[in-house]
Amino acid sequence: MKGGYFYERRTKQLSLFFIGVVFTTIVVWSWEKTPLLTTLLPSHSQVMQLFPAVEVKVKQGTQSKDDFREAEVVPNVTYPVSSINAPSILGEEGLVDLISPSTSSPINTPSLDIHGGESSSTSQENHHESTTNIIEKPFSSEVSEKSTNPISNPPKQQLLEPVSSEVETEDNVAPMANVETQACNFGKGKWVIDNNRPLYSGFGCKQWLSGMWACRLTQRTDFGYEKLKWQPKDCKMDDFNALQFLKRMQHKTLAFIGDSLGRQQFQSLMCILTGGEERYDVEDVGKKYGLVKARGSVRPDGWAYRFRPTNTTILYYWSASLCDLDPIDPGNRSTFFAMHLDRPPAFLKRFISGFHVLVLNTGHHWNRGKVNANKWVMYVNGTRVTNRRLLNIESAKNLTVYSIVRWVDGELGKYPGLKAFFRSISPRHFFNGDWNTGGTCDKTTPGKLEVLQEVSSDLLASGAVKGTNVKLLDVTALSEVREEGHISRYSIKATPGMQDCLHWCLPGIPDTWNELLFAQI
Ligand SMILES: *[C@@H]1O[C@H](CO)[C@@H](O)[C@H](O)[C@H]1NC(C)=O
Ligand SMILES: *[C@@H]1O[C@H](CO)[C@@H](O)[C@H](O)[C@H]1NC(C)=O
Ligand SMILES: *[C@@H]1O[C@H](CO)[C@@H](O)[C@H](O)[C@H]1NC(C)=O
Ligand SMILES: *[C@@H]1O[C@H](CO)[C@@H](O)[C@H](O)[C@H]1NC(C)=O
Ligand SMILES: *[C@@H]1O[C@H](CO)[C@@H](O)[C@H](O)[C@H]1NC(C)=O
Description:
alpha/beta; seven-stranded mixed beta sheet; 18 helices; 16 strands; binds 2-acetamido-2-deoxy-beta-D-glucopyranose
């Protein structure tokens, strides 16, 4: 009987135990299930819900736009207007004329610029660039470096397998990358709905996000584009983790150098890292890099911020052409600039030894209109280009991209702690015209969600980095399918009828570029 009693008691205990386990499981499961349902399972059906047009298009291809609008399930979130610091923020910076890559738009005269202040002008970027060198002048070291030390033969680098070089460069620095990621083609994959997006609010991040790119501050009402997350096909990509990023970048400096699309990526990164919250432990260290607003200029040539807790510096320097610009007649305010196609920007040359991650880009300024408006005169080997073939803009761009990549590749040998990326071109989406002839990008849904091609759509950038240790940050194809993510007609100061189908809304597509970057450093 004793045995029976024990047996019975045991059974009871076991039953109770199992009931407990089952009950706990159910509780935990159902507790998790609700968020799971909305965040982890959304895949296809939810994507279609958010972007009904995609499905419709696939099935019929003829649905009218209004139908898409009606079917739109994106919640129409309204925020108190008072939270939008309307006039000051909106008026802070005008629409930059980068939307005018093929421009022949007039450039402001310097005297006009002096009094232009923060006000908008369609040639702001041109102005900005034409003051670049004037601002640089105080740095005598830079000037003399420029004139006495033209880009010398970069040390030839042995062509290494990317993986082995990866290992090699990491010998003497904190491990930054996961060697495994080298095999991954981050550019291939698909966009999926993620209700945890965006990574920061477009109403926030006022410390770093330009009002002109914060589409939440505009009349735009569709925000489905904020909810998509890029999922590479053949590899795992961790979600962006700000703490991890800063830890990885402890005592390190990340520099973006490029045009306004590079500036968008910079602002995006600052917003992601801070979650769009105001931060008092991030200090402006622009001065250290000479990035101060010169008298009479609209803004400095760049910005640099240091996250004090981890001593991480993130900076951006404006170099639209990614080559060195040198005033031909420094004493003359309306001087032309020698555009040294085969020399790196002086800023890069001067500070590269202090960088640990470098992200370069160029592209949208390589057209006759921009070159003329900026008063750029092409130089190679220190002499003015007369070769007709090279005077062709595409050839000049090709020469510059190859030159800068080769130069940086040579520097990598000197600075093993440095990782360099060349970001591929950010696509424009002007339909039915160009930036100045009524081109539009009105869609509120992505073109498609998947990118399956193996090779980059940017042949120039991918060709230039081939065989070097400079990595391609390939954002072209994945951005190409996101035509709905541009500023479009919501430009704050756009001339009626003119749309910005070049820059992106933030939060938005450039956030993904930073996630790809995070995955590779
Ligand atoms: C969103 O709300 C605003 C203000 O209430 C309204 O004007 C607009 O038409 C709404 N948009 C949609 C797509 O429902
Ligand atoms: C902070 O980081 C920079 C690189 O970004 C480094 O040069 C400097 O030595 C670091 N400072 C300290 C106190 O570690
Ligand atoms: C300054 O440069 C412009 C061309 O950019 C030229 O037309 C003008 O004559 C120059 N002025 C002087 C004083 O050299
Ligand atoms: C620049 O000069 C080098 C030799 O000094 C020559 O090999 C090269 O072809 C020149 N490049 C151009 C574009 O003229
Ligand atoms: C670009 O430059 C590279 C290196 O000089 C050259 O191999 C390539 O043929 C050029 N491509 C074009 C399209 O000019």
